[in-house]
Amino acid sequence: MLTIKTNPLALLIHVNFHDSEKSEDLEEFKLLTLSSGLTPHHIIQASRAIPTAKYFIGTGKLTEIKNLLNHDPVSVVLVNHNLSPAQSRNLEQVLQCRVIDRTELILDIFAQRARTFEGMLQVELAQLKHLSTRLIRGWTHLERQKGGIGLRGPGESQLETDRRLIRKRIATINQRLDKVAEQRSQNRHSRKTHGMPCIALVGYTNAGKSTLFNRLTRSDAYVADQLFATLDPTSRRCYIPELGNVIMIDTVGFIRHLPPDLIKAFKATLEETLQADLLLHVIDRHDTKRHEHKEEVLSIIHELGAGAIPILQVNNKLDLLPDLEPSTQYDENGRPIKVQLSSRSGAGIPLLYAALKALLPNSSDKTN
Q1: CB neighbours of 162 closer than 8 A, spacing ≥ 6?
Q2: Could you read off the pLDDT of 239-288 as tens digits, one per residue?
Q3: CA quadruple 266, 270, 271, 272: dihedral positive or negative?
Q4: What is the number of other CB atoms lying within 10 angstroms of the CB of residue 200?
Q5: Is the Cβ–Cβ distance between 79 and 101 less than 8 Å?
């Protein structure tokens, strides 16, 4: 886990690749940096066709960064891409500075935000899986004392010990998460027994899901203008006019190239989306990259196996677009497929209520 100091400064490395699939969003990376508690101090950009095998970046940029670090008090170097263990190690040896790649940065943010027992276990699981791929000959300074005799030494023995401890801890966490998943299954069965429809809010991080969740459920889930403000899932029962009581679930925000281990680690949490009767796909209508973010979220939904669940698109943050009015869009069968609203001001919320009434069966539990 990345140790955050007081007002630490970070140097950001961003590479523009010719292949757009390999490229990342620089503005999003800046927000990730701020969300982690670091301050972007320098941004070094480069353009390449493919990354180099040894350092990921070219030797010219590497020299430029090293010279910059020699004259500036930067605490950490952040790379807006996923590095191999060898690339991370090689960069740290040359730069004499801690190097964090995109996956490690996201894992650190999740570790800072986890509040529930399950959330903390899931983050630790993802961190351990990531660490296990980078546990390579960490005690090589001891091997020089062997004189080349034999094939095993103190360094390799320590490495095997570390690996065994990590495997043991991963097994323990998986057992505990299995128990949590079982409890969730019982809770879902209870909801079905009471006949309450279940609605899950999904969307790209910082799209305004938690603000909409609070508006609909009249609750006070944590809201902040930052990435991954909501990590642990929150469920509330709320009353929808002319529909009845429903279960509303706020889930973690998605992001482009979310680390695979993180998706697996949070599967128990995201399984809530698999049990939903309807997904509200919340989109920041003010975001210029909303179309890319929409496709990323839909891709993850399908990856989770929730592709068959009906989706109502909710274009949020209309309060930032004064030229647009709240509205509802329908398909050829007259079913609502998109609602434009502002969860902050409340404009368009009645339209959302009407859409939910049209898409969901009436709840058998009508009490508040």
Answers
A1: 135, 138
A2: 998 888 998 988 877 887 776 777 766 665 666 677 789 999 999 999 99
A3: positive
A4: 26
A5: yes
DSSP class of 289: T
Strand 234-240 vs strand 244-250: parallel, antiparallel, or unpaired? Answer: antiparallel
**pLDDT, tens digit, for every residue of 91-146?**
999 999 899 999 889 888 888 877 778 778 888 888 888 888 777 544 344 344 33
Euclidean distance between CA atoms 251 and 200, whole angstroms? 7
Q: 359: part of which helix (H) or strand (E)?
A: helix 349-359
Contact 156, 146 (CB under 8 A): no
Say which amino acid occupies 100: I
Average pLDDT for 146-155: 43
Strand pairing of 9-17 and 244-250?
Answer: unpaired
What does the alpha-carbon distance between residue 112 and residue 1 come to, in Å, rounded to a whole number? 10
Q: What is the end-to-end Cα distance of the chain in Å, rounded?
A: 44
Q: What is the distance, to the nearest Å, from the Cα of residue 174 to the centroid of all Cα atoms in its chain?
A: 20
Instruction: Map residue 236 onto helix, strand or coil.
Output: strand
- CA 33 – CA 65 distance, rounded (Å): 18
Q: What is the pTM of this model?
A: 0.74
